[in-house]
Amino acid sequence: MKLYTRTGDSGKTSMKGGRVLKDDPHVEAYGTVDELNSFVGIAAAQAASTAATQALAAELVEIQQELFDCGSDLAFAIPAEQHYKVTAEMTERLEQWIDAHTDAAPAIQRFILPGGSELSATLHVCRTVCRRAERRIVTLSSSHPIPAEPLKYMNRLSDYFFAAARAANALLGVPDTEYVRSANVFKTRDKS
């Protein structure tokens, strides 16, 4: 099998239901989700390399599978509800992981800078690319009908990456770096 097809040489690509320009809002949305998936792959490899973050690596690989599901759901030129893959249960599981990672990290009062450990820095890159993917999905939704779940999932996923980045630092014994000019913007959480 050859990797090149030459069918995109004129600036068009195939979607489920037709061919579109490569800068079509559908392609921008699922292409940015694909870009995010590549960064998640880097984070998963980093997490897998250290015993303290093995469980985080497994979560990230599951997220990679679900990002493929999101891309698939966004690749329909015409809505096809019976073929959608992203479910509310996926988003609910992200919320459980967010809560667990939040509990694993020290209380936060100020904004923090992306970084600390290399894994945490990569997870912050994932967070910002996820936000961009979310914006691309919103743009797509303003002109085309799309399923609701991928947008909900991506919104929650960016929160996951923030919580996971902080948890990674805690697991690796690396403190977060506070933004020095930040006011106290986060309420102290009650751990009872």
Automatic annotation (TrEMBL):
Main EC class the enzyme belongs to: transferase
Domain Cobalamin adenosyltransferase-like: residue ranges: 3-167
Pathway annotation: Cofactor biosynthesis; adenosylcobalamin biosynthesis; adenosylcobalamin from cob(II)yrinate a,c-diamide: step 2/7
GO biological process: cobalamin biosynthetic process
Family: Belongs to the Cob(I)alamin adenosyltransferase family.
Complexes and interactors: Homotrimer.
Protein name as it appears in the record: Corrinoid adenosyltransferase
Record organism: Paenibacillus cellulosilyticus
